[in-house]
Structures are given as C-alpha cells and as structure tokens.
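The passage that follows is intended for readers who have already worked through the single-chain material. We present the inputs for a multi-component assembly, then the predicted structure in tokenized form, and finally a short commentary. You are encouraged to pause after the input and sketch how you expect the pieces to fit together before reading on.
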Amino acid sequence: MTAAAEVTAVSAAVPHPYRVVSRRVDTYDTVTLELAHDTGPLPAFAPGQFAMLTAYGIGEVPISLSAVADTADNRARRLIHTLRAVGAVTRALHATGPGGVIGVRGPFGTTWDVPSAAGSDVVLVAGGIGLAPLRPVLHAVLADRARYGRVALLVGARTPADLLYPDELRRWAAEAIQVEVVVDRPTDGWTGHVGVVTTLIPLARFDPARTVAFVCGPEVMMRFTAQALRTQGVPAPAIRVSLERNMRCGVGWCGHCQLGPMLVCRDGPVVDFARAEPLLRIREL
Amino acid sequence: MTGEVAARVASHPFTAGLAAEHLRTLCEAAAPLSYPPGKRIFAEGGAADRFWLLERGSVALDLRVPGRGDQVIETLVAGTVLGWSWMNPPYRWQFGAVAREHTDTVAFDAASVRRRCDTDPAFGYAILQLFTPVITGRLQATRLRLLDLYATAGQAGRP
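Having made your guess, compare it with the prediction:
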C-alpha cells in the first residue's frame, strides 16, 4: 500500500463528529436526523450512497442517505438520515436529540445514478424503511422534472402507522407523480390499498421498454418486485436494487459484506438486477 | 353481448393471449356492471354465480370477524379479475367483496361459462390457463405477507 493509500485508508476508517441539528419523529420507531459537521464536512454524498453512523461507545451501522441537503451551500453539506430503532446501535442513534454528537464515515458505495434515467419513465418501488433511500431519487427527479417521463412511486408498508413521510407523499402526488400506497395490515379508517406492493405494479403508468425502476426494501420484496417488473416487460438491467449485507469497513477491505464476486459496500449497495439476480439465487450467499 | 362489451373484454389485461374463438365464447356470457362506492358486490357464503373483470376503481375483499366487523383482507385494482369460487363446488363465496370507489366491470355469468367449459374442453383449458396465474399470484402474495417482511424481529416474534 502506498503512503497516499494508507492516508486514505486511515481517513475512511475514522468517524467524523457530526452534531444532530434536528430530529423529526417519523413513526413510533423511526426518526429522521439532520447532521451538521463539527470539524469539516465529508465529501458530498449522492443518492443511494450510505454512511457508517457511530453511536459512540456502542457501535456503528450503515445507514443510507435519505435526502440531499444544502444543495445551494456546499460548505455546510449537512447529512440527512432516516433510521429505525431495531438494535442496540440504532436505538442509541434514534435516541440522540439535537446537540448530540454522532460519528460519521463515508460516503460509501455506488449511487442510484439518477441522471442516467433522464428521458425514461421512472418507477420507484419502496418497501417499509426502503422508502428512505429512495427519497433522494424523488428529490432529484422533482428538481429536474422536465428531463424525466412519467414517474410512479409505489409504497408498501406494514401498517398505516409505519408509513414514512405521509406529508411528502401527499405533496409528491400533487407534483405530477403517481403515488400509490399499500399496507399489509389495515387499521380502522384505512381506505387505501391492502396487500403486497407488487399488486400496485399494474396500476403504475409507464412504458416498460423505456423505464428505469428503482427498488428498495427487504431482499425478498425486491426479488418479487423485480420479477413482477420483468413480467411487465422492464429489462433486468433497467431495474436497480439496493442490496444490504453486513457492511463494516465501507471500502472493501474487510470482506464482511461479500456477495459472491462483489463486496456490497464498494460494488453496491445499488446494482442492477441483471447482476444481482444470479447472486441472490444462491442460498449460501 | 354487444360489440362494445366484446371490445372491453378483449382489451382487458386478464384476457391477453386468449384465442379469438375462445374470446368470442367467453363474451357470450358477459355484461357490463358498475358499482357505486360502498356497494357490496357479494357476501361470504353467497352463491358464487359470477366473476368480474375490473376496468376502473377497486374492490376490497373482506371477512366478517365477530366483534371486529368486516376486516379487509386484500384490495383488487383495475386490470385484475374478481372471483374464482365459481369454478369449483360448492360455488359459494369464501370472502365478501365491496366496491371501494366507483367501479366499472364486465361481469360473466358463471353457470354459463361452466357449461361452455364442460362442452368445449379446449375452451375450459384456456379459461383454466387464465385463472391459474392469478390464483398462484395471490397465493404467493399471501405467503409473502405471512413472512411479515417489514416487521422488526420483535414485531414478528423472531429472536
């Protein structure tokens, strides 16, 4: 390893302190944190990339970017992450309020490459917390709406109470985006769709031959969604999925996130389904 | 059956791939039907005497649960088919169905379609080929929901 590479390696392994400047409660177990750097910003994150967030003294977890902030002020480069309290680290991050400090490493991984979808119809399919990594895609499309064809957002959630960003869903629906929502378990008063997210695909208005699909959610959900999109005629290379494995180092050294020939932290998380599908079929991976 | 109804049946995604002669046979049992929001289309236990191609709107499949009222199991959207209990004895609905919004359909008389299936096995096989992917698709969807994929380990009762 060269001296320059060693410096880069060490730099990528050291968390930068970021201060929580706002904490919005999204659902009973999910919050969106806006983070501002204390000692200087990390390089700019792109939609689809993830950060390793550290709860000091507890541990570190990979969390995707859920919005691109401060596009007009590159010096600020605030980070916005939506996270769900499911384990020791995420529970600690979830509980961190304004003024609290979180360690951040990144940006890591591949991007959704939103600009390459220009001129195509765009279909986004989100399952559960998977809507968070897709939100920057929608923001990018809306910021340059004329460059894209029809846009459909299909969202699946466990219950109505688990639905992320309900206000934004309403706003997106008013901004020439087709928004369809389905829940697995309706509660009293729910008047929307009930079932799995794949049942929304026939409702989406898009031309399969000129569509780019962005899919994020539990792996099984992504597999079935990709199959349903392919049945509709969307080619596998035009379906992008965000994979999740045991990301640790973030830069492809440690091998914890290996998926066949890929290291998901470096070669993913976003990959096209033509590449992902054969790997996801192998049980041992 | 009018030419307009035949055109509606032919253009529905459910009948894509159906041979022209089978489409004509199917259309002999077809009639347009619309339902206002909240209208019950059928009730659990009733005679399964029709099936419907949903053209516009959506339908909730429900089940009456004592103390909890009608619980929605699943919603069906335009472009899909409603009803398959007509295919096998005892020809009784296993669930109920309610229009969630204004819903336009083409309805088929089940007894008439069954008679045609009995007298023309090629037509019967074609109908079976139309319904089987729908049935397996809904079975797979139900299995996916049983996995409770969006739940945390605690919610799903996993260690």
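Commentary: Helices of chain A lie at 3-13, 88-94, 131-143, 166-173, 219-232, 264-267, 273-280. The two ends of chain A are 29 Å apart (CA to CA). How closely did your sketch match?
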